[in-house]
Amino acid sequence: MAGRVEDFDVEIPRDTSTTEPARAWMTGSSRRRAGAVPWVALALALVVLGVLAAPVPGMRDRGLVPALSSAPQPQWSVALHSVRAAQGQVWIADQRVLAASGNALRAADLATGAIAWEMRGNRLRCSVQAPEIACVSGLQEQAELIELSTHAGELDRTDMPHLLFAVPHQRGLIGLWKQGDEVTVTRTDLTGRQVWQEHLSPYSGPIEWSEVRMAVVDDVVLLSLARDAQPDLGIAALDVDDGVARSNVLALSEHDGEWLVNTENTLVVYGRSGQPWPVGSAHLQMPVDDDPGGELVFDLTETSVQARVRSTDETLWEFVPGEPAPVVPQARLDGVLVVWSEGQLRGLDLADGTARWQHPSEAPMCPCYADGRVLAHLTWRDGTHLQGIDVTNGQTVWEVPVGSSRSLTYGTDGTHLAVATDSTLSLWQLD
Question: Domain 6-58+78-282+404-429 adopts which CATH fold?
Fold first, then answer.
């Protein structure tokens, strides 16, 4: 949930002051890059992580962008080297396209594609809240915090043993630490003063660095850690002001940067941009939905999808594929539920579940964006292609190549689509 951006991974982110950093977490030695300034000298105006002080440009409802009825237009493409896109993320912010992989973060100029700066690290995990960026490189005793800005690049690099993840917040930082069995969350302000420290449940095993997720939504810090190995550690919800666990907030799940949160019996999905969508009940939530709080809700069984009436819980219809097989819903759009099953995308009429059309599809993977009628979809015939499918009839409206391999990650700001593969970073115009 990285500020003003949506991102999705497939197998896979000029000032000259020499002021010293005002922040130091725990104990750490700072290695300053010449000519850089710390975040305290950046512009005062910023959007608080996860709270939409201004709407994401062009984003409507859930997963909807203004225009996909015509093919995205290529703007530029630049070569990348030694990149693993499967470990990456892409953000578009402050006229920059940020592409992160496991070993590098690069910033390209949104207009030209020229690489503005590059930062190298090891097993990078980054969080962007423009103009601030926080990355953690390395593990355990070798962990270090790297502070950057969207325009200047790297500002400061500080040894931070046992730091797992960091999120910028109000020009300070929220950090997740693990030393031995102890798991700790801290918040520091822009001066480096520790605002609070909260100890979570002890955990004896390793926490997989690539699985850690953190976000701030409204006034709550959400963390997803090692719920499969230790459910009581699982997902935590802490008050952003004092770090105390919020008894009235229950984070139910996190998937691909989206959080399902129960706050005083109100269910809300927070998208990757931090935008909230009240959903009313814990039924299936889809990445593209033009009626997320509507009367019709959906539930999955092992081999079917059921449409239910929210107010009565009455089953309206059930779709069962010809052979017993999983059904993967992808979008509700323009009166159609789009699902994947048995190597096909299928368009089901919302009124009665009748299959209107089917479209060949190798796997249930999509960019998870649409306009009011056209759904973007990935296909892997002769390289990776992005297709626009009319959900009313299943016809391909357009198709463009976006990469030479299946390993890619991408993001959008509603009007641009940025795609990073193992070898290239490309920008497409959506409208």
Answer: Methylamine Dehydrogenase; Chain H (2.130.10)
